């Protein structure tokens, strides 16, 4: 009776002794539209992988429905030739190292859903031979174009350059400080030659420079034009034209 019980225990525990295969993959993967996504899948098995080992990848859309197998590996890879994933699946696995991963090229929003990796390695056919991964693909954020950067730089650099040039101009062409006495001097306080509106012989006439014109204030301009419009006065010449006063002699 004892031998029968031991035999029954061995028979019942025999599958669990060989059911040591375990498949694992990340629970979630996030990607942007157009990215290359690696659907990772690893497995461990007490038996050495042979030509009988198989890998299957299935996909269930986010909207629901039954899973659909789109990739199969058995000694070599069999990528999908038609359907949603045609031409976009690359085998990245290595059974000898316990790798059963695949690569999804040019991810789209329609690829959102649950991906299941299933590995069979006889005699290890029990345990946890499957693993699930939820893929979430989001729209790619808009990138800044070169034209946008150029316009932004133009709006920033051009005003800055103009202000810099103005400051440099004021540094190299400082405004002349007029003497208070010269600014409000009497009309009779003239130098030789000014009574005729001309400059003395041999004197060089200084022409107005760009700095003088640029830094001239509104008051200076008004004074300049008033002096220009004022008729020349010659008090000495007027005195010479007046009749001489009579001279009296005391006897």
Automatic annotation (TrEMBL):
GO annotations of cellular component type: plasma membrane
SUPFAM superfamilies membership: Immunoglobulin (SSF48726)
InterPro entries per the UniProt record, alphabetical: Ig-like_dom, Ig-like_dom_sf, Ig-like_fold, Ig_sub, Ig_V-set, Myelin_P0-rel
Keyword Transmembrane helix: yes
Gene3D superfamilies hit by this protein: Immunoglobulins
Pfam family, one: V-set
PROSITE patterns linked: IG_LIKE
Matching SMART domains: IG, IGv
PANTHER family found in the cross-reference section: MYELIN P0 RELATED, MYELIN PROTEIN ZERO-LIKE PROTEIN 3
Protein name: Myelin protein zero-like protein 3
């Amino acid at each position: 009776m004892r031998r029968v019980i031991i035999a029954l225990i061995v028979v019942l525990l025999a599958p669990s002794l060989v059911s040591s295969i375990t498949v694992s993959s990340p629970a979630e993967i996030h990607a942007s539209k157009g990215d290359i996504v690696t659907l990772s899948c690893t497995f461990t098995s007490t038996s050495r992988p042979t030509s009988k080992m198989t890998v299957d990848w299935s996909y269930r859309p986010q909207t629901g429905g039954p899973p659909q197998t789109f990739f199969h590996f058995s000694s070599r890879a069999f990528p999908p030739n038609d359907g949603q994933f045609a031409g976009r699946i690359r085998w990245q696995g290595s059974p000898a190292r316990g790798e059963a991963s695949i690569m999804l090229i040019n991810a789209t929003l329609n690829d959102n859903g649950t991906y299941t990796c299933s590995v069979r390695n006889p005699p290890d056919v029990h345990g946890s031979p499957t693993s699930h991964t939820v893929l979430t693909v989001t729209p790619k954020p808009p990138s800044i174009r070169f034209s946008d950067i150029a316009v932004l730089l133009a709006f920033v650099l051009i005003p800055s350059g103009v202000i810099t040039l103005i400051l440099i101009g004021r540094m190299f062409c400082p405004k002349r400080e007029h003497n208070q006495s010269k600014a409000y001097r009497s009309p009779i306080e003239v130098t030789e030659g000014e009574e005729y509106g001309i400059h003395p012989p041999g004197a060089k006439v200084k022409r107005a420079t760009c700095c003088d014109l640029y830094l001239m204030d509104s008051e200076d301009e008004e004074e300049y034009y008033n002096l220009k419009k004022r008729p020349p006065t010659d008090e000495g010449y007027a005195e010479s034209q007046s009749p001489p006063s009579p001279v009296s002699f005391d006897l």
